[in-house]
Write a structure and sequence with these properties.
Oligomer: heterodimer
Distance between the termini of chain A: 53 Å
Radius of gyration of chain B: 18 Å
Helix content of chain A: over 70%
Helix content of chain B: 40-55%
Largest sheet of chain B: none
Mean pLDDT of chain B: 86
Mean pLDDT of chain A: 83
Number of domains of chain A: 1
Largest interface: A-B, 20 and 23 residues
Number of strands of chain A: 0
Strand content of chain A: under 5%
Structural class of chain A: mainly alpha
CATH topology of one domain in chain B: Double Clp-N motif
Shape of chain A: elongated
Number of strands of chain B: 0
Strand content of chain B: under 5%
Radius of gyration of chain A: 19 Å
């Protein structure tokens, strides 16, 4: 019974739809997490430069994305 | 394309923009179209929703949408797909909310400083409007009414479609209560007075 379920699950994992959906979902989670963390850093007085350095992107990129909020 | 929209459909689109504005969302999205479709006066969509027993369950639909928004707008299918990778979304949300407060992962609500002006239509909402045209074509209807917007919401793979399906509103059930389109069958019912 468990074996059958495991097999079914493993077969399902090979379905590209599930894998791609997971990637898209993860990206959404990531976007939200980034927004939460950037907002929190700004509230604590971090500069765009400091935030960008931690995120590993350019200062302009962060500012453009979150600057107007 | 908009000239083929009935007054009802235009009202829904306008209503969606108002919902987005009230919610402080950065853009109008599919969920705002659904919110605008709920609790409307007599129209084809409200008739269909009533026929499917959703008319009195507006609060339940709204709660389900709120809940999904809390989870970064992920549907259950999204959460399941991530669980397949060993990622527990509810755990992530719980931890983030512990530190940053309830609703931290719901996004959009950052708009406290946003001007109350008009919002752009997000990708999801644009997709729904585009699909509503296709729904009308498929039914050989000459107009695009709010029922086509509702149909379009059910054929997507997002939270809104999932919430609707949970409430018994699918493309199949809608087609059943709406009957055939104007072009389907001779003098088919619904030879619309939905002008």
């Amino acid at each position: 019974m468990t074996e059958a379920t495991d097999l079914a699950e493993r077969a399902g994992d090979r379905d590209p739809r599930v894998g791609l959906r997971a990637v898209a979902a993860l990206r959404r989670v990531l976007e939200q997490l980034e927004a939460v963390q950037v907002r929190s850093a700004r509230n604590q007085g971090w500069s765009w430069q400091e935030i960008a350095a931690e995120l590993g992107v350019s200062r302009q990129a962060v500012h453009k994305k979150y600057g107007r909020q | 394309m908009f000239e083929r929209f009935t007054k009802d459909a235009r009202d829904v689109v306008r209503g969606a923009a108002e919902h987005a504005e009230r919610a402080g969302a950065p853009a109008v999205d599919a969920e705002h179209l659904l919110l605008a479709l709920l609790g409307r006066g007599p129209s084809r969509a409200s008739f269909a929703l009533a026929a499917l027993g959703v008319a009195d369950r507006g609060d339940s639909v709204r709660d389900a949408l709120d809940e999904a928004r809390r989870r970064a707008g992920l549907s259950r299918a999204d959460a399941d797909a991530l669980a397949g990778l060993g990622i527990d979304v509810s755990e992530i949300v719980a931890r983030v909310e512990e530190v940053h407060g309830a609703g931290a992962m719901s996004g959009g609500r950052t708009g406290r400083g946003r001007s109350p002006g008009r919002r752009p239509f997000g990708r999801g909402a644009k997709d729904v409007i585009e699909k509503s045209l296709r729904m009308a074509l498929a039914r050989k209807d000459r107009h695009i009414g709010d029922e086509h917007l509702l149909l379009a919401l059910t054929v997507r793979t997002d939270v809104v479609a999932e919430v609707l399906a949970d409430h018994g509103v699918t493309h199949a059930s809608l087609t059943r209560v709406l009957g055939e389109g104007e072009g389907g069958g001779r003098g088919g019912r619904g030879a619309a007075k939905a002008g």
